[in-house]
Design a protein that fits this description.
mainly alpha
Length: about 450
C-alpha cells in the first residue's frame, strides 16, 4: 500500500503544458508518425528521427498517444506519468521475488518513486540528524571505542548519497528526463519491459527451483507434526520464463540500453543461486540467444554506419570515467579537486575542502565494507545498477539514461540503510560487560580427583 501512495506524487507531477510537444525531437517524431500513418512499419526500419536506432515498441507508445490525444499535450503527459508509475510497481514485484522480503522491496520501490519528483531529499535531513545523534550517544555510552559507534555514522552519511540518487550526480531528479520530456519515454518503456522480464524470471526460480537445505544447527527449531509441507509447483510454471522472454524481446525493441538485460538476468540467477536456489541455467542461454537475434535483426533493418546524431553523442576521455565512478566508487571523482586544492600548499588545510574529501573516502569505504553484513542484497543492487548503466557511460549524459540503473540501485540504497540501522543499535545500546570469571571448582561441584 505504501508503494501505491508513493506513486501519487508522480501522478500529480504529470505535465499538461503545451511545451511538451514543442521540443524539437518531439515535434519531428510526431510529424514523421503522422506523415507515415503506418504504425507497424517501424518494425522494419529506422525509428521516426532517422538517427539509426531500432525502437519500434517505444514508437508504438507515441503512435497510440497520437491516435488518442492528437495535439492535446496533457494526454501525452499523463501517459508519461502512468509509465513511471507502472515501473515503480514492477520494481516492487521484481524485488519482492528477488529478496522474498516485502518490506525491503516496498522500501526500495518507495525510494525510487520519490526520486522521480526529488522528494527523496526530504529524507536526508532526518538521516543526517540521526547520524549526529548516533555519534553523540555513541561517545556518551562508549567513549573512545569508536568501532562501536563510528561505523553507524559513516554508513548513514554515505547512504544519504545513495538515497539522494540523481542529485548525487548533479541532476535535479529523474522526473525532468522522463515525466517532463517526451523522448525520455523510450527509457521508461524499456524499463517497464525489462523489470517485467526480470520479475517473471525471478518468480519462476523462486516458486519452482529446488532449495538447497542448510546444514542443521543446534539453534534450528525441531520439525513438528504441525509443520506444513509446500505442494509442488504448478504444471504451468514454465509460462513465467516464457513471459520473461517475451518481455525481454519487447525491451530490445524499445531502447538500445536493453542489450544489458541478459547480463542483468544472469546477475539475478547468480543472486538466486547464492540464496540457495538450484537455478536452471538453461534459460540463460535463451536470453543470450534472443540478444543475438536482436543484433542480427538490427543489422538487417538499420542503415549501416553511425548517424550524425550518434557521432555527436559518442564521447571518450574523463567524462566516461566520471560517469562510471559515480556508480562504482564515487569518492574517486573527488581526487582531482583534492589535488587542485593541494596546489595551494599548506594553506589548503585551513579550508574544509580536504577534510570533506577525506570524510567522503572514509564514508564510501566504510559503507562498502559494512555492507558485507547483508552482502547478497547489497551486491545485487550495486552490481545490477552498474551493469544496466555501463554502455551509457560512452555517450553524453541525459537523465533518462539513469532510469533503469537507478531503479535497480534502490535495492543497494535501502540495504545500506538496513545495515546502518543495525549498526546504530550497537551504538545506542549499553556497553557490554564482561561476565565474572567462574571459580574453579565451581561452588557445589564435586571435588576433582
Amino acid at each position: 500500500m505504501a508503494v501505491v501512495f508513493a506513486c501519487i506524487p508522480i501522478y500529480l507531477a504529470r505535465s499538461a503544458s503545451s511545451d511538451l510537444l514543442q521540443d524539437t525531437d518531439t515535434h519531428v517524431l510526431l510529424d514523421a508518425i503522422r506523415a507515415r500513418n503506418a504504425p507497424l512499419s517501424w518494425f522494419t526500419g529506422d525509428w521516426p528521427l532517422q538517427n539509426h536506432f531500432y525502437r519500434p515498441v517505444s514508437t508504438l507508445a507515441f503512435e497510440i498517444d497520437n491516435r488518442l490525444y492528437g495535439t492535446h499535450a496533457a494526454g501525452y503527459g499523463l501517459t508519461n506519468a502512468l509509465l513511471c508509475i507502472a515501473c515503480v510497481l514492477l520494481l516492487f514485484w521484481f524485488l519482492r521475488e528477488l529478496t522474498d522480503r516485502p518490506w525491503l522491496a516496498g522500501s526500495a520501490a518507495v525510494l525510487f518513486a520519490l526520486q522521480h519528483t526529488g522528494d527523496q531529499n526530504y529524507l536526508l535531513t532526518p538521516l543526517f540528524y540521526f547520524a549526529i545523534a548516533t555519534a553523540i550517544v555513541g561517545v556518551i555510552k562508549h567513549g573512545f571505542s569508536v568501532r562501536l559507534w563510528a561505523p553507524a555514522c559513516l554508513v548513514l552519511l554515505y547512504a544519504m548519497t545513495e538515497v539522494a540518487g540523481m542529485d548525487a550526480q548533479g541532476m535535479k531528479s529523474l522526473g525532468g528526463g522522463v515525466i517532463e520530456w517526451l523522448p525520455g519515454r523510450t527509457a521508461t518503456v524499456m524499463t517497464l519491459f525489462a523489470l517485467a522480464s526480470m520479475a517473471a524470471y525471478t518468480r519462476y526460480e523462486r516458486i519452482s527451483a529446488e532449495r538447497i537445505e542448510r546444514r542443521a544447527t543446534p539453534l534450528d527449531p525441531p520439525a513438528t507434526r504441525s509443520k506444513q509441507l509446500h505442494s509442488g509447483p504448478s504444471r504451468l510454471v514454465f509460462l513465467w520464463p516464457v513471459l520473461s522472454l517475451v518481455c525481454a524481446a519487447l525491451a530490445f525493441g524499445s531502447y538500445e540500453q536493453a542489450v544489458m538485460l541478459p547480463a542483468a538476468l544472469l546477475a539475478v540467477a547468480v543472486t538466486m543461486r547464492t540464496n540457495r536456489y538450484r537455478v536452471r541455467w538453461g534459460w540463460q542461454a535463451g536470453f543470450w540467444c534472443l540478444l543475438g537475434c536482436y543484433l542480427v535483426l538490427r543489422k538487417l533493418v538499420i542503415p549501416a554506419g553511425a548517424s550524425g546524431y550518434q557521432l555527436q553523442q559518442f564521447r571518450s576521455g574523463p567524462g566516461v570515467y566520471i560517469s562510471l565512478f559515480d556508480y562504482t566508487m564515487p569518492f574517486v571523482n573527488g581526487i582531482k579537486g583534492f589535488l587542485v586544492n593541494l596546489e595551494m600548499g599548506p594553506l589548503a588545510f585551513v579550508t574544509g575542502a580536504p577534510y570533506g574529501f577525506f570524510l567522503s573516502v572514509v564514508e564510501n569505504l566504510t559503507a562498502f565494507y559494512q555492507s558485507r553484513r547483508r552482502w547478497i542484497f547489497a551486491l545485487a543492487g550495486y552490481g545490477m545498477s552498474i551493469i544496466a548503466f555501463l554502455p551509457m557511460a560512452w555517450v553524453k549524459q541525459f537523465a533518462h539514461y539513469n532510469y533503469w540503473p537507478m531503479a535497480l540501485r534502490s535495492l543497494f540504497a535501502v540495504t545500506l540503510l538496513w545495515v546502518a540501522f543495525e549498526l546504530a543499535v550497537i551504538a545506542w545500546s549499553p556497553r557490554g560487560r564482561q561476565a565474572p570469571l567462574r571459580p574453579d571448582p565451581a561452588p557445589g561441584s564435586l571435588p576433582h580427583r
